[in-house]
């Protein structure tokens, strides 16, 4: 790491040294120009360029679109040295990312509106679109940002044109098209956290009126979370090995008819975002020699430390350390798909567009259910993973058998749009169809001390002596569930230019969903003594022999439901001048029907979540287009949340319709060009969110051993005489910082005596503290933090060769992307951290031909 730090510091000093004469030369040139009566050429050329977006399904200047939209072009993406789309939250303060233990459990939110349920059968709240194709799951979107032309972040409900599941907004990614002339690029990189990267792209004509483009990327990175678990665990966690490629074929059949064929494939083996216990729970377990660990809370520390509680506590205190019996590359994602984008121009005013797509996504993983090195022959924890050979197959991770979970989805999409202009009208009408299928295979074999009560974190015999005669419960849940949805929609949108200054716009979208689910949930439940377990356990194969077990509980059946709903938008914009406009709008979006398919769910469905947004905004380009100043004020009302709730007395969650959220906010985006070599940017967002009418289970610290309650935990929903529920109305919504901002400066330092120019970027982002759980658990919070990223490089004047160094989170601010309670399973406080939670540095080389 010292090499990269030295290289980065050296580049910074060199850049500053060269900046003085470079800017002195600019000043001298300006003075000479004034003496000659001429204009200063550098300033004359220092103008903000036009930003073209497709936020309204047609190419427009972003300043003319009455929607709050942020854009990231390929130059800024390159400067930021993004590894994947999860890093968008570091440069767009309205976007927040919440990590899951697999990509399929991740969550994006925009303006505080995101998913509050993380189970299969629940649809996302932010639409994720690549080349016009809406992806069904966030997991498909956690991908390398290679060969990308532009990223658009549309804020607020986009239900009219982007359909359901865009209540928070949409992230619209456009990959580069094939070029008419032959070109290519090769990039290689290395980082201090042992990432090795190579990217390549080639593009150009293949025949008359036919051009193609092929891009590929390979990434191999070691894990960033130190794992001191057993030798068979396979090393540190969080690493990845990715191979991906995409291809495009651009065919002009005639001047009026174009077809763009696109395909992509990615294979990603990873330790993604493992669950790390950071606060040990007070539990009971059997220590060495049958000793009782009782109420000291030392069981987890002792297990993590391999018998050394002090060492284990040090691991608990560091979110970037763990000790589990899980391979670092135990998860695998495979995604592939293809699309046909056909465009026919009837004339200069009317265009027909068809987008046909087919996609597949597989997410296989094997989590360590107790978060320690314990297994079936080391019962130091109250819950450990074991193999159940009856029922579903268990995936072997190293030498330890652990739970297995596989999610597989396939879907087909067809969208047809007719759009055009007529006098003062711009209009679009269309239809949309999606056929989506998702299969979930899940096996969770657990061994539990029978006296363990996860609601209170201790057993009925706390303080007693645990002996080998104590009884244990083998609990295993297997799922073979299916979820399907057919979606039909028709939509229309128009803009009417009433005068040269005044526009009115509006749109409607009718959607019908037909949802089905097929559940086959089996629960195996059997009581063993410690002696029984010892006789059944095969220490060589590390398998608990359970062939004689039969399911004790079944949830089997099929169910169907359907729903129709309307999304809309309406508003007006007024151009105060050629450079300044104001707009006001009202819009509605929905998250579709939910069909939860976890093992705690039944055959019921959840109603759609609805978001109503009211917004006024200003867009302007000032000082002769040297400064772009855009701002918006909005109110978003979210009703019928699809939310996960803890089942009282268990560590399990279920999904319910519960509560509403009101969000009032303001956003400001400023871009300023000082001269042709220096640009500043600032984005600020304020969000005042409030939960309404929502009940949640109490978190652990609201309960004591003798069931004494804190004032907030005062609702007895199951009428057993013991309150277990609280009203969380009035609190902030999850993962929604009150304040967040991002600021950057990008610069170029031209030289005259050298064959290359210098460039760089300084980027700083800051987010206020956030709460990750709806039940307002005091330990499920992340304090405010800021990230400083730096990039410095040099590029030859022909722009063919480029060398760069970068630093991410150079202030080394440790933070977590998620925190929650998994009492008795993973710890009192469990966190997830991503790669950017620590400082790392890198260098790269790029050759363009």
Automatic annotation (TrEMBL):
<dbReference type="InterPro" id="IPR036942">
    <property type="entry name" value="Beta-barrel_TonB_sf"/>
</dbReference>
<dbReference type="GO" id="GO:0009279">
    <property type="term" value="C:cell outer membrane"/>
</dbReference>
<dbReference type="Pfam" id="PF00593">
    <property type="entry name" value="TonB_dep_Rec_b-barrel"/>
</dbReference>
<keyword id="KW-0812">Transmembrane</keyword>
<comment type="similarity">
    <text>Belongs to the TonB-dependent receptor family.</text>
</comment>
<keyword id="KW-0410">Iron transport</keyword>
<keyword id="KW-0998">Cell outer membrane</keyword>
<protein>
    <submittedName>
        <fullName>TonB-dependent receptor</fullName>
    </submittedName>
</protein>
<keyword id="KW-1134">Transmembrane beta strand</keyword>
<dbReference type="InterPro" id="IPR000531">
    <property type="entry name" value="Beta-barrel_TonB"/>
</dbReference>
<keyword id="KW-0408">Iron</keyword>
<keyword id="KW-0732">Signal</keyword>
<dbReference type="InterPro" id="IPR012910">
    <property type="entry name" value="Plug_dom"/>
</dbReference>
<keyword id="KW-0406">Ion transport</keyword>
<keyword id="KW-0798">TonB box</keyword>
<dbReference type="InterPro" id="IPR039426">
    <property type="entry name" value="TonB-dep_rcpt-like"/>
</dbReference>
<dbReference type="Pfam" id="PF07715">
    <property type="entry name" value="Plug"/>
</dbReference>
<keyword id="KW-0675">Receptor</keyword>
<feature type="domain" description="TonB-dependent receptor-like beta-barrel">
    <location>
        <begin position="325"/>
        <end position="810"/>
    </location>
</feature>
<keyword id="KW-0472">Membrane</keyword>
<dbReference type="GO" id="GO:0006826">
    <property type="term" value="P:iron ion transport"/>
</dbReference>
<feature type="domain" description="TonB-dependent receptor plug">
    <location>
        <begin position="62"/>
        <end position="170"/>
    </location>
</feature>
<feature type="signal peptide">
    <location>
        <begin position="1"/>
        <end position="24"/>
    </location>
</feature>
<dbReference type="InterPro" id="IPR037066">
    <property type="entry name" value="Plug_dom_sf"/>
</dbReference>
<keyword id="KW-0813">Transport</keyword>
